[in-house]
């Protein structure tokens, strides 16, 4: 007898093979940059392991057979993670913990690193509800990615939800569902601000004063935080070294023109 989870996974895989990708999300270059920035938030011991196996981690992520991955991409278009997807995520995370206690620690580290694929796109505002799928939406998405990629040095990375760095693994699928659930509102804002007088705003015309810059900054930091929270929760559950975790620095923006000096 075929169980319901297997049926759901089979249907998701069939959809991916027979048709276009359910959702277009962060390009590979941006996803990898997000993963690298997430290393700043994880324990040094884990960050060192990931850096030592970076090439293998990114290669594994490109060809990953994680059962939850196709379900995540199917859900992105709807702006929420279904119970079936959350359950699949829970199983995947449990497998990563088990593998870290298995025979090949390096292989397990690489597989853990590749799990960034499960969380990196959940905060991408250019997909799913609020953005649309028409030609103008695709043009806005293209310019948004171009702008974000070209201005990474100007986008500050902050911990959006500091408590997420301390969640337990059994709460991780629910947390990621919350991340996905907040994205449609940002998508709607990007759709609104990504065009002006009926035309799509080119990336070259977007600057730090534009609401699009604000959307990009928030989305990028939310993605970094989601990836880091995923890695930390699994690493902690496996009994990994947590002694070198630095407390996240909270950045409180001041009114424009005010110097960043302590009075």
Descriptors:
263 residues; mainly alpha; P1 Nuclease; two-stranded antiparallel ribbon; 12 helices; 2 strands; globular
What does this structure look like?
By secondary structure, the protein is mainly α. The protein has one domain: P1 Nuclease (Orthogonal Bundle). Helices cover 57% and strands 2% of the residues. The chain has a two-stranded antiparallel sheet. Strand 1 and strand 2 form a beta hairpin. Helix 11 packs antiparallel against helix 12.
Q: CATH first level: which class? A: Mainly Alpha
> End-to-end span in angstroms?
70 Å
User: Spans with pLDDT under 50 lasting ≥5 residues?
Assistant: 4-22
Outline type: globular
Task: Quote the CATH topology.
Answer: P1 Nuclease
- CATH superfamily caption: P1 Nuclease
What is the name of the CATH architecture? Orthogonal Bundle
């Amino acid at each position: 007898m075929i169980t319901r989870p297997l049926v759901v996974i089979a249907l998701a895989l069939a959809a991916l093979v027979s048709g276009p990708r359910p959702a277009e999300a962060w390009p590979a270059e941006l996803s990898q940059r997000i993963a690298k920035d997430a290393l700043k938030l994880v324990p040094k011991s884990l960050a060192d392991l990931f850096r030592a196996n970076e090439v293998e981690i990114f290669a594994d992520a490109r060809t990953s057979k994680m059962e939850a991955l196709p379900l995540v991409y199917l859900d992105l278009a709807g702006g929420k993670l279904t119970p079936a997807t959350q359950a699949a995520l829970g199983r995947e995370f449990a497998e990563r913990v088990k593998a870290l206690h298995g025979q090949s620690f390096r292989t397990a580290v690489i597989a853990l690193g590749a799990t960034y694929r499960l969380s990196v796109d959940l905060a991408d505002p250019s997909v799913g509800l609020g953005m649309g799928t028409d030609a103008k939406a695709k043009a806005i998405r293209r310019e948004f990615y171009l702008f974000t990629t070209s201005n990474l040095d100007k986008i500050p990375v902050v911990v959006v939800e500091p408590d997420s760095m301390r969640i337990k693994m059994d709460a991780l699928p629910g947390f990621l569902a919350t991340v996905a659930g907040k994205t449609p509102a940002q998508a709607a804002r990007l759709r609104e601000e990504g065009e002006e007088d009926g035309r799509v705003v080119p990336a070259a015309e977007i600057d730090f004063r534009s609401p699009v810059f604000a959307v990009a900054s928030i989305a990028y930091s939310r993605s970094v935080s989601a990836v880091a929270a995923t890695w930390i929760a699994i690493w902690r559950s496996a009994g990994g070294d947590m002694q070198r975790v630095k407390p996240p620095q909270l950045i409180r923006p001041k009114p424009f023109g005010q110097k960043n000096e302590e009075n």
